[in-house]
Amino acid sequence: MGWEALGQWGEDAVRIEPLTGGLANDVWRVRVYGQIAVGRLGSRTDTDLAWETALLQHLDREGMTVPVPILTTGGRLFADGLVVMKYMEGGPPETNSDWRRVADTLRELHRLTQGWPQRPGWRSSTDLLHAETGTRVNLTAMPPDGVIRCRAAWARLVGRQTCVVHGNPNNPSNVRMTADRVALIDWDESHVDVPDLDLVLPDNAADLEDGALEIAAQASAAWEAAVCWQDEYAIRRLAEVRAN
Where does 96-239 sit in CATH, by number? Predict the structure, then answer.
């Protein structure tokens, strides 16, 4: 149906301008119910979007600042692949102090989602020790030696407690900060995994100890290589993953 679905947010709902940053989705600034919002149109299934929107509602109820979904006139959280969310004001993190605030926000996310069910169709990093596919991951498309290195990095995470991870919080464009709050946006890659994957931040703002930081950094590089394979970024990230 495409952007015609925006009409389900009212006769006056309108697209204003495209927003940059999204790769898998078409993202626009929109106006619904007389307020500025963000519309994201993609190809995710209804079960996938139900997981993501329920997560955002949960985090909002628990006091986190997130792009909470805005309901259609019929009370739905999404329609025909389109989600309309609250617009988040603010700018990206710039200083080490900013990134420390991001780390605190991520730890709150992890605390609030222990025991959360996995996103439909996804695999965690440790699931991929035995599985070969999961949503955007297809290990059969990667060089065999690269898969071995990635799995060696993920094997170091076995036995850790899992929770929801944002998936890409070290990208400044996925954070909107003001003086009194930190908002994480673009939850398209969120899923259940080991929390340390979220904590590989600039200048080690999460204060991971040397050994923990090394393990997390290797596992994170392996994950990003697998998710993004086979673009230049993925090839570069795979090169960072050591054989042991």
Answer: 3.90.1200.10
Each residue's pLDDT tens digit, 179-237:
999 999 999 999 999 999 999 999 999 999 999 999 999 999 999 999 999 899 999 99
Q: Which amino acid is at 91?
A: G
Which class is 2-86 in CATH?
A: alpha beta
Domain boundaries, the chain: 2-86, 96-239
Between the CA of residue 244 and those of 51, 69, 94, 192, 226, what are the distances in Å? 35, 43, 34, 25, 18
Distance, CA of 198 to CA of 190 (rounded, Å)? 10
Q: How many CA atoms lie within 13 A of 34 on its CB side?
A: 0
Please choose, from the candidates 156, 162, 172, 175, the residue with its C-alpha nearest in 3D space to the C-alpha of residue 220.
156
Secondary structure string (H, E, C) spanning 75-127: CCCCECCEEEEECCCCECCCCHHHHHHHHHHHHHHHHHCCCCCCCCCCCCCCH
Contact 204, 112 (CB under 8 A): no
What is the pairing mode between strands 163-165 and 182-184? Answer: unpaired
Assess contact for 238 and 220: CB atoms under 8 A.
no
Q: How confident is the model at residue 135 (pLDDT cuts 50, 70, 90)?
A: confident
